[in-house]
Design brief:
The complex is a heterotrimer of chains A (231), B (244) and C (260). Chain A has 231 residues and is of the alpha+beta class. Chain A folds into three domains: 5-58, RNA polymerase II/Efflux pump adaptor protein, barrel-sandwich hybrid domain (OB fold (Dihydrolipoamide Acetyltransferase, E2P), Beta Barrel), CATH 2.40.50; 70-147, Nucleic acid-binding proteins (OB fold (Dihydrolipoamide Acetyltransferase, E2P)), CATH 2.40.50.140; 151-228, K Homology domain, type 1 (Ribosomal Protein S8, Chain: A, domain 1, 2-Layer Sandwich). Chain A contains five helices and 17 strands. Chain B has one domain: Ribosomal Protein S5, domain 2 (2-Layer Sandwich). In chain B, strand 6 (72-79), helix 1 and strand 7 (120-129) form a beta-alpha-beta unit. In chain B, helix 1 packs across helix 2 and helix 2 (134-148) packs parallel to helix 4 (207-237). The longest helix of chain B has 31 residues, at 207-237. Chain C is α+β, with helices and mostly antiparallel strands and 260 residues long. Chain C has one domain: GHMP Kinase, N-terminal domain (Ribosomal Protein S5, domain 2, 2-Layer Sandwich), CATH 3.30.230. Chain C is 25% helix and 34% strand. Classes of the chains: A alpha+beta (231), B alpha+beta (244), C alpha+beta (260). Chains in contact: A-B, A-C, B-C. Chain A binds chain B through residues 11, 13, 15-19, 31, 33, 35, 40, 42-44, 46, 57-62, 64, 90-92, 132-133, 158, 161-162, 213-216, and chain B through 38-39, 56-60, 68, 110, 112, 116-120, 147-156, 190-192, 229, 232-233, 236-243.
Chain lengths: 231, 244, 260
C-alpha cells in the first residue's frame, strides 16, 4: 500500500513535472494530472488546496475557448450566412446570422456589413465548440453587441481575473476613476471607450496591473495614476 | 591526427578549459526574454548560447497539417551566421533540418499534445554563439520556453552532450573535445522518469563505455533540470502576491 | 494587431498631441547597447530600443574583389526576419520586408562612405577583405530599422580583423588581431511615421501597424544626408520631408553620442 503524502502547500509556485502529492486519496484539479498514485503539475501554476483537491491554477497560456465564455472578437471575413471572427484562440469562430440578432434579416436585401463590418469588434458569447473545433458565437442577448470605436488592447488571458479584481473591484475602480466604459473579454481582449486620452491612460493602467500585479498597494497606485492626471 | 588537434585533452588532471572530466560548463538560464513570444528562454552553457521562442498553440497554417487528435509540433533549429568561426550561410541546411527533427522528437514525449487538437505549437531555437553542444542547449532551453508558454507537459526535458576524448569519458564536451575527440553522445531525458528522449552517437565506443556515458549524462541532466526549474520559478515567483 | 479601431484610437490621440506611451513626437524610446556580446563574431552589437531588440554581427573573410572595383573590399548586408522575433515572420527565404531592411542598412553604410574600402584590399584584382553584416531581430516591438542601423554601425566600430596567413592564403577566423576596420564617419538613422497627418519619431509596434507612410533619414557628422527611404503606401509633402530632415539632423547628434 502506497503511503499518502503531500509535497506542496497552498500558494506554492510549481512547474511542469513537480510532484504534488502521493496516494489515491488526493484528487488532481486544474492543470494537475495523475500518474499511477502520484499527482504532478502540468504547467507553471499556483497551488490551491481545498480538502483533498489539489488544484494548479495556470500562470501562463493561450486562450482555449469554453462554452459560456464571454469574448471580444474581431471580424475577419463575411460569408453568405454570417461572419468569421478572430477571438485570439487557435480556433476559428463563426457568428451565424441567426445568432447575430433577433431581428429578421432578409438576406436578399440586406448588406451584412451594416451589422458587423470587417475589422470591427464584437462582444459575444461562446455557445458551442463543434467536434471539429469551430467556435460558435452568439450576440443575440444583451449585453452582446458591436463595440463601436474606442481602444482595443491585448493582455494575457491568465491575468484577466486580476484585471477584474475581487468581485469586480478593480474593473469598477478603473471605470469610476476614468469615466471610461471598459469591457474585458475572457480571451484577453479589452475594449476601452472614453476620450482618446482617457482610453490611453486606462490602457496603461491595465498593462501596469498585468505587469506589477504582485506589488503591494497596486489598487491605490492605479487609482492615483488615473486620478492624478485628471484635470 | 587531424590538423589543429590538441596534443593532449587532459593536462595535469584537468581538461583544456580547466574543468574536471565530470564537470559541466557554467550554466545560466532565463525564462521570458522575448516579449512578442508566448514563451521564451535564453540559455548559456559556457560559450554556447541560445535563444528560444515558443508560439502557440495557434492556428495551423497550412491547414492540411492540422491533426484531429493532437497539436502539430513544429521545431526550427537555426544558427546565426556569425555564431561560428567562419561565417555560415543564413537559412536552413541539411544539418539544421536534421537537428530540428531530433529536437522535435526529443521534446514531443514530454508535451500533452493531445490537449491541443487541431493546433500548431512552434518552437524556434536560434544559436547565437556556438561552441559545441548546441542541439543539447537548444533542447534544454526549448523545454523551459514551452513551460513558460503555459503549455501542458508531463515533465521538462533536460539535455547534455557526453563523450570520449584522449581515452577519457567526459561530460559536456567543448569545441576541441567535440571536434577531435573519439566519440560524442548527445542525450536528453525526462528527469522524473529517466526516460531517454534523445540519443545520437558518433565515433568509437565500447558497450561498457556507452553504459557509463549514459549514467554520466543522466546525472548531469538532473543537475540541469534543477536550473531549469529555478529559472521558471524565478520568473513566476513574482506572480504570487497577485492571486490572493 | 493591424486594426482600424487601434488606428483610429492612435490617430485621435495624436491629434491631441499625445502618444500611447507618453513620449513626445520627436522622442526615441529608451536605448540600451551591448557591445560585442557574441564572442565568435568579429564584431557584434545588441541594441534594445524599448522592447525592440536586435543583434547585428560582423564577419570577415577574404575573397575576390568585383571586377569594376579591383582594389576595394566588399560589403554584404543581410537581414534574417526569422520567426523568433515576431508572430508575423516566417522561416524560409527572405521576403520583401527583410530585403528592404537589409538594403536600407546597406545604403546607410555604403553611401555614407564611412568605410575606406581601398584599405580592405590585400592584393589588387585578387584578394580583398569581404565584410558581412548580418542583422537578426530578436523581438519586434516596432522600428527595427533604427535599432538595426544603430547596432550595425556600433558592431562595425568594434570589429577586429581576424589573422590572415598570406603564405597559406587562409583566414584564421578564431585569431583576432588588434586591427579595427577603416571607418571614417558615423551615419545615424532616424525613422519617422506619418499617421493620419501626424508625424512621429521611432514608431512603436502599434504605431507602426497604424502608419500611412514612413521616412528613414541617415545623417552624417557634417549634417549632410547620406541615405533616405520612404516606405509604405501613404505620402509626404516636400515641406514635411525638409522639416523631417532638419529634425533628423538635430536628433542624430544625441544618438551619435551613444556610438562608441
Amino acid at each position: 500500500m502506497a503511503k499518502e503524502k503531500i509535497h506542496i502547500k497552498n500558494r506554492d509556485i510549481v512547474v511542469p513535472g513537480d510532484l504534488l502529492a502521493e496516494g489515491m486519496a488526493y484528487l488532481p484539479s486544474g492543470k494537475a494530472f495523475r500518474e499511477d498514485n502520484k499527482i504532478y503539475a502540468a504547467t507553471v501554476g499556483l497551488i490551491s488546496i481545498k480538502g483533498r483537491v489539489i488544484k494548479v491554477i495556470p500562470l501562463a497560456g493561450k486562450y482555449m475557448p469554453k462554452k459560456g465564455d464571454v469574448v471580444i472578437g474581431r471580424v475577419t471575413n463575411m460569408g453568405y450566412s454570417g461572419w468569421h471572427l478572430d477571438v485570439n484562440s487557435p480556433y476559428n469562430a463563426d457568428l451565424n446570422i441567426g445568432e447575430a440578432t433577433r431581428e429578421y434579416i432578409d438576406l436578399a436585401k440586406t448588406d451584412l456589413s451594416k451589422y458587423f463590418d470587417i475589422g470591427e469588434y464584437a462582444l459575444a458569447e461562446v455557445i458551442n465548440i463543434s467536434e471539429n473545433k469551430y467556435i460558435k458565437l452568439s450576440t443575440k442577448k444583451r449585453p452582446y453587441r458591436k463595440l463601436k470605436g474606442g481602444n482595443i488592447i491585448e493582455v494575457s488571458p491568465t491575468k484577466i481575473p486580476r484585471i477584474i479584481g475581487k468581485a469586480g473591484s478593480m474593473i469598477k475602480m478603473l471605470k469610476d476613476s476614468s469615466g471610461c466604459d471598459i469591457i474585458v473579454g475572457q480571451n484577453g481582449i479589452v475594449w476601452i471607450k472614453g476620450t482618446p486620452e482617457k482610453e490611453a491612460l486606462v490602457a496603461q493602467a491595465i498593462h501596469r496591473i498585468e505587469k506589477e500585479s504582485h506589488t503591494k498597494g497596486l489598487t491605490y497606485n492605479i487609482k492615483k495614476m488615473l486620478g492624478g492626471k485628471k484635470k | 591526427m587531424k590538423a589543429g588537434a590538441p596534443d593532449k585533452f587532459i593536462v595535469k588532471g584537468k581538461r583544456l578549459d580547466g574543468r574536471k572530466i565530470d564537470e559541466l560548463r557554467p550554466i545560466k538560464i532565463k525564462a521570458g526574454v522575448i516579449k512578442s513570444a508566448d514563451g521564451s528562454a535564453y540559455l548559456e552553457m559556457g560559450e554556447t548560447t541560445v535563444l528560444v521562442a515558443v508560439r502557440g498553440p495557434r492556428e495551423v497554417i497550412p491547414r492540411h497539417l492540422a491533426m484531429p487528435d493532437k497539436a502539430y509540433l513544429n521545431c526550427v533549429y537555426d544558427m546565426m551566421s556569425f555564431a561560428t568561426p567562419e561565417r555560415n550561410r543564413p537559412g536552413p541546411s541539411r544539418r539544421s533540418t536534421e537537428i530540428s527533427k531530433v529536437m522535435k522528437d526529443a521534446l514531443s514525449p514530454a508535451i500533452f499534445l493531445e490537449k491541443y487538437p487541431k493546433t500548431k505549437i512552434d518552437i524556434y531555437a536560434e544559436i547565437t554563439n556556438a561552441n559545441a553542444g548546441t542541439r543539447c542547449a537548444a533542447i534544454t532551453a526549448a523545454s523551459v520556453a514551452l513551460a513558460d508558454a503555459g503549455i501542458e507537459m508531463k515533465d521538462i526535458v533536460a539535455s547534455i552532450g557526453v563523450g570520449k576524448a584522449g581515452g577519457k569519458l567526459m561530460l559536456d564536451l567543448f569545441e576541441p573535445e567535440d571536434n577531435f575527440g573519439e566519440a560524442d553522445v548527445p542525450i536528453a531525458i525526462m528527469p522524473r522518469t529517466e526516460e531517454i528522449t534523445l540519443l545520437q552517437m558518433d565515433g568509437d565506443l565500447s558497450k561498457d563505455e556507452l553504459k557509463k556515458l549514459i549514467a554520466i549524462g543522466k546525472k548531469a541532466c538532473k543537475e540541469i533540470y534543477k536550473k531549469q526549474k529555478q529559472a521558471l520559478k524565478k520568473k513566476f515567483e513574482t506572480e504570487k502576491e497577485a492571486k490572493k | 494587431m493591424r486594426t482600424r479601431t487601434v488606428k483610429s484610437h492612435i490617430s485621435a490621440l495624436l491629434s491631441k498631441n499625445k502618444r500611447e506611451d507618453n513620449r513626445k513626437f520627436d522622442e526615441f524610446r529608451n536605448i540600451s547597447i551591448d557591445v560585442n556580446p557574441i564572442p565568435r563574431a568579429h564584431g557584434s552589437c545588441k541594441v534594445k530600443l524599448g522592447e525592440t531588440e536586435v543583434i547585428v554581427g560582423v564577419k570577415l573573410d577574404v575573397g575576390e574583389p568585383f571586377p569594376d572595383t579591383p582594389n576595394e573590399g566588399v560589403l554584404i548586408v543581410n537581414a534574417e526576419l526569422g520567426p523568433l522575433a515576431s508572430p508575423e515572420f516566417e522561416s524560409g527565404p527572405p521576403r520583401e520586408n527583410a530585403i528592404e531592411l537589409a538594403r536600407v542598412i546597406d545604403r546607410g553604410i555604403r553611401e555614407s562612405k564611412c568605410i575606406d574600402f581601398e584599405k580592405l584590399c590585400i592584393k589588387e584584382k585578387e584578394k580583398v577583405w569581404m565584410l558581412f553584416i548580418d542583422v537578426y531581430p530578436i523581438n519586434d516591438s516596432g522600428n527595427l530599422l533604427d535599432a538595426s542601423a544603430l547596432a550595425a554601425i556600433i558592431a562595425l566600430k568594434n570589429a577586429l580583423l581576424p589573422k590572415y596567413d598570406k603564405k597559406e592564403e587562409k583566414v584564421l577566423y578564431k585569431e583576432f588581431t588588434k586591427k579595427k576596420l577603416p571607418l571614417t564617419k558615423t551615419p545615424i538613422q532616424c525613422t519617422y511615421a506619418k499617421i493620419n497627418g501626424s508625424i512621429i519619431l521611432d514608431p512603436s509596434k502599434r504605431e507602426e501597424d497604424s502608419l500611412d507612410s514612413r521616412l528613414s533619414i541617415s545623417i552624417l557628422e557634417s549634417g549632410n544626408i547620406c541615405a533616405m527611404q520612404k516606405g509604405e503606401v501613404g505620402t509626404f509633402t516636400d515641406k514635411e520631408i525638409l522639416d523631417l530632415v532638419e529634425k533628423a539632423i538635430k536628433k542624430s547628434k544625441d544618438l551619435r553620442k551613444l556610438v562608441k
